[in-house]
Amino acid sequence: MAEKTALILVDVINSFFEPGHPNYYPGVEDVIAPMRALLDAARRSGAIVVHAAEKHRPDFHDFEWRKLPVHHLADAHDAAFFPGFEPDGPNETTVYKRRFSAFFATDLALFLTEQKVTRVVIAGVKTNVCIRATAQDAFANGLEPIIAREATNSNRPHLAEASLEDVDRYMGRVVSLDEAIGMLS
């Protein structure tokens, strides 16, 4: 069976990429160009692109706030897509999530299965939280998770490296940006 690959961009929103927001961290800018290269490759080839973004309901309690401050409220600036990474095109869709994984309590697994996707290239932030959770749930749903090493990072580098090691050993593969681009081309 031929591999059909989709790109999942995780939390490419202002909260992480604009200085001054609580989720911004120095060095996050390093993933912008690699994510752009993946997005451009997917758009050129017509591969499916999933923009997975965290979004919470204003005026309602969210369990996540037991550990984290209130963030990413619907229609708030911090929850908007970072400029240049807005969904744009016939093969692009958006999945809003309320937990770390793009799969948990969303219809992403169903959608990708219906599109006959077998492999997902995952990029975005943060490696040890949302990227790892998304890779683990991709694997649990029968999809091969691929992480483009240069297209994700964290403000906790030691945890990012441990997460990449675990993904590569137990769930999927961690590959170079060029290899990931090849999978999307």
Supply database-style keywords.
Rossmann fold, 6 helices, 185 residues, 6 strands, alpha/beta, 6-stranded parallel beta sheet
Strand content: 15-25%
| Total E-strand runs | 6
* Proportion in helices: 25-40%
Q: What's the helix-strand series?
A: EHHEEHEHEHEH
CA-based gyration radius: 15 Å
Level-2 CATH architecture: 3-Layer(aba) Sandwich
Strand count, sense and closure of the main sheet? Answer: 6 strands, parallel
Low-confidence stretches: none
Total domain count = 1
Average pLDDT level = 94
Instruction: Count helical runs.
Output: 6
Q: In which order are the strands of the major sheet placed? A: 3-2-1-4-5-6
What form results from the Cα inertia axes?
A: globular
- The span between the termini is 18 Å
CATH superfamily: Isochorismatase-like
CATH class: Alpha Beta
How would you describe this protein?
This protein is α/β, with parallel strands linked by helices. The chain has one domain (5-184): Rossmann fold (3-Layer(aba) Sandwich). It contains six helices and six strands, in the order βααββαβαβαβα. It has helices at residues 14-17, 32-45, 108-114, 127-140, 157-171, 177-184; strands spanning 5-10, 49-54, 92-97, 119-125, 144-153, 173-175. The longest helix is centred in the last third of the chain and has 15 residues, at 157-171. The two termini are 18 Å apart. The mean pLDDT is 94.
List the helices and strands and how they pair.
Elements: E1 5-10, H1 14-17, H2 32-45, E2 49-54, E3 92-97, H3 108-114, E4 119-125, H4 127-140, E5 144-153, H5 157-171, E6 173-175, H6 177-184
Parallel strand pairs: 1-2, 1-4, 2-3, 4-5, 5-6
Helix pairs in contact: 2-6, 4-5
